[in-house]
Amino acid sequence: MASDHDLEMENMNRGRDIEEELEEEKKMRDDGEGKDPFKYKNVHTIVSKWMLPENVRRTYVERANCLPPPVFIISISIAELAVFIYYAVWKPQKQWITLDTGILESPFTYNPMKREEAWRFISYMLVHAGVQHILGNLIMQLVLGIPLEMVHKGLRVGLVYLAGVIAGSLASSIFDPLKYLVGASGGVYALMGGYFMNVLVNFREMIPALGIVRLLIIILIIVSDMGFALYRRFFVPANGSPVSFTAHIAGGFAGMSIGYTVFSCFDKALLKDPRFWIAIAAYLACVVFAVFFNIFLSPAN
């Protein structure tokens, strides 16, 4: 009798174990169907190592997905490329390397004599002065902007990018008031400023193997872009028009303030962070001063 009872208990336990295994397999299968397929390719893990300090990486990986995709950076890049192709192909210039009079006459270009057309303070980002100019900006904003948007989403990345664009044109209108302005460098440098401030604060946690080499490559691109901007400003041909480079510096400062605050609030409510409001208040104060300068004090009046 005891033997029969033991056998019955063993069969019951075995049946229960089988049911638990089947239930666990079903749960894993259901979870697998709902998860982002990129997780199995370790894309989010790699992105988290580059974009986030170690203490919040797990939070990101657990809830990471590609919905919505990085629409903002991709859309801006397509628009900038389309405008460049339009002026280089459909409105041919004398040379591809440095487009000249065509882009200076564009309704998108920041023209100091047409500052009443307020859209130019933003739309200048769509126009580029040559192949090297647009390639440098597109490479930087895609390589850096797509992973940033995967982590922080388009609203935050767009805020930082446009803050850099506006800061660039307003700063140029003050410190280089008689010069034209083209290119998305203000927005690109804002992304870089915000990202590198985070890297600086969390250096040991955010730079993986070979990180120094990659940083040197990015620095090389920055130096090349700045060199091209300085050339357009100080070494243009006698019949050309110099283009301001101030947007690079102003965009970088916008990124180091607003961008750093936005990108360091990955797992926090941005609107509840006092640093964000301090940065916004300082930024708006500069904007108000720039508007006042352009209306009443600018040499271009």
Largest sheet: none
Mean pLDDT reading: 79
Distance between the termini: 107 Å
Structural class: mainly alpha
Rg to the nearest angstrom? Answer: 26 Å
How many β strands by DSSP? 0
Low-confidence stretches: 24-36
**Share of β-strand residues:** under 5%
Question: What do these coordinates show?
Answer:
The protein is globular and about 55 Å long. The protein has helices at residues 2-34, 43-51, 54-63, 71-90, 101-104, 120-123, 131-175, 185-201, 203-206, 211-234, 246-263, 274-297. The model is unreliable at 24-36 (pLDDT under 50). The chain is mainly alpha-helical and 301 residues long. Helix 7 crosses helix 8 (185-201) and helix 8 packs across helix 11 (246-263). The chain is built from twelve helices and no strands.
Topology:
Elements (H helix, E strand, L loop, with lengths): L1 H33 L8 H9 L2 H10 L7 H20 L10 H4 L15 H4 L7 H45 L9 H17 L1 H4 L4 H24 L11 H18 L10 H24 L4
Helix pairs in contact: 2-3, 2-7, 4-7, 7-8, 7-10, 7-11, 7-12, 8-11, 11-12
Features:
globular; single chain; 0% strand; 301 residues; 12 helices; mainly alpha
Q: What's the short version?
A:
The chain is built from 12 helices and no strands. The chain is mainly alpha-helical and 301 residues long.
